[in-house]
Write a structure and sequence with these properties.
It contains nine helices and 13 strands. The protein has helices spanning 13-22, 32-41, 85-99, 114-122, 185-196, 209-216, 264-275, 295-301, 337-344; strands at 4-7, 45-52, 55-64, 69-76, 105-106, 148-157, 175-180, 221-228, 231-240, 246-254, 282-288, 305-314, 349-350. The longest helix is centred in the first third of the chain and has 15 residues, at 85-99. The radius of gyration is 24 Å and the shape is elongated.
Length: 358
Amino acid sequence: MALDVRPIADGDTDSVIALWKAAGLTVPHNDPYEDIRFCQRSHNAEILLGFDANGLAATVMVGHDGHRGWYYYVGVAPDRQTSGLGREIMSAAEEWLKERGVGKAQLMIRPTNTRVKAFYERLGYDEEDRLVMAKRFRPAPDWQAGQTETMVIHLEMLARPDREPARPPKIGKRVTLEPMATPSVRFYRFLYNGVGGDWIWVSRRIMDDTALAAVLSRPGAEYYLLQVDGEPAGFCELERNEDGQDVELSYFGLLPDFIGLGIGRYFINAAIDLAWKPATKRVWVHTCDLDHPRALGNYQRAGFVPYAREIEVLPDPRLAGMPLPAEPDERGHAESSLFRDRVAAGKLRLVGENSPPS
């Protein structure tokens, strides 16, 4: 085995939960801390951790009810997936059950989670004709109450910027921005969740794999990968309308480890250069008060002009294992004086008003 497997110990909890969140295993109606405590109080359950040379790499919660074994929180760190570690941690869980005389193990999978189903099929697990029934002893959370309102700002650029084409900065590392073919769902989730994890990017995070694959393959979508010394550092996503005249910079951002290296200005200018082609007449982008505090100002300094605002209601971020955001008066847009000046001058219409954009 490449993994060194041992039971969870004191001091492991935070790193275990961080892996669960990174792997998309947490759900809002289960408190992972309480799940760990509950497991540790049981004589018939254990949380097994698999370590490689880089640290914690895989987990599984395994237990039995006196008759059958069960698995929960089977996960591998996103940067080590597809390397066989999932198979190894499951093998360790199976051995744990066999040592206790358990003759059969089972698990539950949501019908839409086809990728996970295929993984277990490769390990020899078969689908059985059973009806799962459940009864709650505590009321289900009211996630409707957790819906999040955010102020969305729409910005546009009606002419190509009058400047030299963007050139990678000299930071002692090789910085490149290259086009991607339609990314795989797994790699896109790595980029989307990594870039948007601190900024409540929730809409695509809660899509199942089939729905997300359909979105990614839509006509007019273009993807570009930012790399620093060959390592993924961020991405941008453009969407062109049919005649190519209108282009949206629909997603854009850096992975956390690459913020503050001095590549942000190059990245936004290079993305703008990619958006402008001979047929292009308008490039637009939107941001919101949940975004990085400097995002709005950075877009404006790059040449975008705010023209409209609207209130958008997002799904409860806890559905994606994310926390509720800060209150509106503690969010980002207050730092942009250019934005405040346009609001004060009445130059930002609310979407739905009859006044044209300025």
